[in-house]
Design brief:
Length: 140
């Protein structure tokens, strides 16, 4: 049974989409038995175009990704739940009240210039790589 990681942000259109896509690509590339999903408490209509653009630079296509609503089942089936900056608005991200949720506290990339979105993407990648290392280092 693969480890399951759930990335959560409010609109599921930026940070959590990048995190799940990077996690899945890197886990696959490294042969790690783990999978990530993402969801939001108030899903947007689509992934932010600037997010899709910077992920395409890495060869990751988010054109088919659709923001979706966070469910209790998502949380209950996850081994780890990571919010992407929900501490700033706990009112719309109740996941911060779930036991053992980790918050990465990253800025929302929506409407930011591409260089800033790239910096957010690269920080997410760094954290995802650390998380994968942590998952591999844990006994099964």
């Amino acid at each position: 049974m693969p480890k399951r990681v759930l990335f959560v942000c409010v609109h599921n259109a930026g940070r959590s989409q990048m995190a799940a896509a990077l996690f899945n690509a890197l886990a696959h590339e490294r042969g790690i038995d783990a999978v990530a999903e993402s969801a939001g408490t108030e899903p947007a209509e689509r992934v932010h175009p600037e997010v899709a653009a910077v992920m395409a630079e890495l060869g990751i296509d988010l054109s088919g990704a659709r923001p979706r609503l966070l469910t209790n089942e998502d949380v209950e089936s996850a081994d780890r739940v990571i919010t992407m900056g929900c501490e700033v608005d706990a009112g719309v991200c109740p996941a911060v009240f779930i036991k053992d949720v980790e918050d990465w506290g990253l800025p929302d990339p929506k409407g930011r210039p591409l260089d800033e979105v790239r910096a957010i993407r690269d920080e997410i990648r760094r954290r995802v790589e650390a998380l994968l290392g942590e998952l591999v280092g844990k006994p099964a």
